[in-house]
Design a protein that fits this description.
- Helices cover 36% and strands 26% of the residues.
- The longest helix is centred in the C-terminal third of the chain and has 19 residues.
- It is an alpha+beta fold and 141 residues long.
- It has a 5-stranded antiparallel sheet with strand order 2-1-5-4-3.
- The radius of gyration is 18 Å and the shape is globular.
Length: 141
């Protein structure tokens, strides 16, 4: 006998962060991996603005794009990974990669935008170190 698949449990235990926000940017879903990556308990994140994890210097650009997606219902980051800086609860810089999915109501209005997020800080640091090493080697030629 096949038992029903528990989607809620899957969302909570997924290895990547899953964060959903309402059209106004209020966080409405925050899984365990989001807590691990960003440091906020769900009770600290739910009901707060996405500004919680967006570095201040990037907020204006983020909200311009966010409002455009909410107005048009179009994003190129449904399949293409967007890599951006983020910020942890303790203030340290993170590098994240994510895709998004728009969730619609029965009336075809956007209910939420859901991001599947991976912490790429280690990869980004390795790339920076390699670029620095290449520049050093080129300078000694």
């Amino acid at each position: 006998m096949t038992r029903p698949f528990d989607f809620e449990n899957f969302l909570q235990v997924a290895g990547d962060a899953i964060v959903a926000a309402a059209p106004d940017g209020t966080i409405v879903f925050w899984n365990a991996a989001a807590k691990r990556i960003f440091g906020y308990e769900p009770t600290e994140a739910l009901g707060r603005s996405l500004d919680l994890i967006i570095p201040e210097r990037f907020r204006q650009r983020h909200w311009q794009g966010y409002r455009r997606v909410m107005a048009t219902g179009q994003t190129r980051y449904g399949a293409d990974v967007l890599r951006v800086p983020a910020v942890h609860k303790d203030g340290r810089a993170l590098s994240i990669g994510f895709t998004v999915t728009l969730m619609y109501s029965l009336e075809q209005q956007i209910d939420a935008i859901v991001a599947v997020i991976r912490d790429e800080t280690g990869r980004w640091q390795e790339e920076q170190a390699l670029r620095k090493r290449i520049a050093e080697l080129q300078a000694t030629r």
